[in-house]
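2024-03-11 09:14:02 DEBUG pipeline.ingest accepted 1 chain
2024-03-11 09:14:02 DEBUG pipeline.ingest length=226
2024-03-11 09:14:03 DEBUG pipeline.predict start
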Amino acid sequence: MCRACWRRGKEPENAGCKEQHGRRAARYFIMQKSVQVRTPLYTAAYWQQAADEFKNIRVLAFAGMVTALAIILESFPIYLLGQSLKIYFSFVVVSLGCACYGPLVGMGVGAVIDTLGFLLSSYGEPYFPGYLITAMLSGLIYGVMLYQRKPTIPRLIVTRLLINYGSNVLLGSVWKAMLYGKGYLYYLSTGMVKNTIMIPIEVALMWLALNAAEKHGLDRRYLHQR
């Protein structure tokens, strides 16, 4: 009876109908509010919106949590094939954070993670600014690809290709050649193999984390309250 009078647009016939109608209306309102407006990347409005994330206290607090978790996870890699192939899970929280607060905050978080991570676990090695550039570039790529976008498998694959081959292989090989002197092609070839193997694992973990966050409303319920 309640469903029928709802469809016909009639007034609720009893208290039970009123309660069900109220819940339906509330769910519809929440669904409408949770629709995220996707501003085109090439517009000034997009970058203004990304810059405005620095003014959101909830976003800044969440960025601090992402920074802390990323530094902790960097300290506990899982070795798949000894020292030659290991996985750090920090990219999961970094990508999740960038999906919520965008490329500009993502670049700042990347810089803080790299700097604090060096200060806490450098083990006497000299500071090298190249890795700071890599961390900021990765935050930019994550933000551009995931901010205000649905985390589909094709999008996540493209994101990993850009980061693995652009930031990690091309740039990372330059930094290693400058630091350790074995030659750019040596680090390029070894990095290419490692990052190619890691792509399916990284895409799967990102997809699980980002879709779980979207399902439970991390962004719209707790950060931006859409």
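2024-03-11 09:14:41 DEBUG pipeline.report The longest strand covers residues 78-79.
2024-03-11 09:14:41 DEBUG pipeline.predict end
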